[in-house]
Design goal:
single chain, 20% strand, 228 residues, alpha/beta
């Protein structure tokens, strides 16, 4: 269902909310879109989390816009103020869920993975984070502010986020004493996006069902341990 919630600055944002069968007392997760926008695939991620017992909310960062064209997706992503999205849209989503759940995590993919890392430095109400093949520029990551456990899934053949950059992020998180676990997969960018197949996929992405399942298993165990 589509709902509205308020950012810390009072502005209203819409989002997609997926509820588990037993919503009362369920832990919650904010889900952050890829650069395509709030589409059926990312709604499916929220439904997957709801099926596992989590309340899941996808904030609509593009304000109703979505696309299947890479050029337009790049335009939408470039126009997004990442700091505002993390500190306002995402924090507002977390605060909304905190009204219903004792603990709230965050997960995101590609652009959403970068925003997940950023949010762990900017949203004090968070309890855990899982980033999927996405990271912000290192200069924007104040690792000293990350007080929650963080997991990440990386693709060693990723042409969007090179593994050398991941090495540098790993070192920065380690130096700051972040409770961090990074997993690497012999895969390409977008390996957990089941629509990254066939002629519609962009060349640097490729769905891999086996690696996606392993990463999801790790994610669910991680959220189960840290959110309850």
């Amino acid at each position: 269902q589509t709902i509205s919630f308020n950012r810390p600055d009072g502005k209203s944002v819409q989002g997609y909310l997926a509820e588990p069968a037993q919503a009362a007392g369920a832990p919650a997760v904010v889900v952050i879109q890829e650069w395509w926008g709030l589409n059926d695939q990312i709604r499916g991620v929220a439904e997957r989390l709801a099926g596992a017992g989590f309340l899941a909310l996808v904030p609509d960062l593009y304000r109703g816009k979505s696309t299947v064209e890479a050029e337009e997706a790049h335009h939408l992503m470039t126009a997004l103020d990442f700091g505002d999205a993390a500190s306002q849209d995402i924090r507002g989503a977390v605060q909304y869920l905190k009204g219903r759940a004792a603990k709230v995590g965050i997960t995101g993919f590609c652009m959403g993975g970068a925003l997940t890392v950023l949010a762990t430095t900017m949203v004090p109400e968070l309890d855990a984070g899982v980033s999927w093949y996405g990271m912000p520029p290192l200069d924007f990551v104040d690792a000293s502010k990350i007080k929650v456990p963080l997991m990440a899934h990386w693709a060693t053949q990723d042409q969007a986020f090179a593994i050398a950059g991941v090495d540098a992020l790993d070192e920065k998180l380690k130096a700051a004493g972040v409770r961090y676990s990074g997993h690497r997969y012999l895969a390409h960018h977008g390996f957990a996006n089941e629509t990254a197949v066939g002629p519609r996929r962009i060349p640097i992405t490729q769905y891999d069902a086996a690696w996606a399942q392993l990463a999801w298993d790790r994610t669910m165990r991680f959220f189960g341990a840290n959110l309850g």
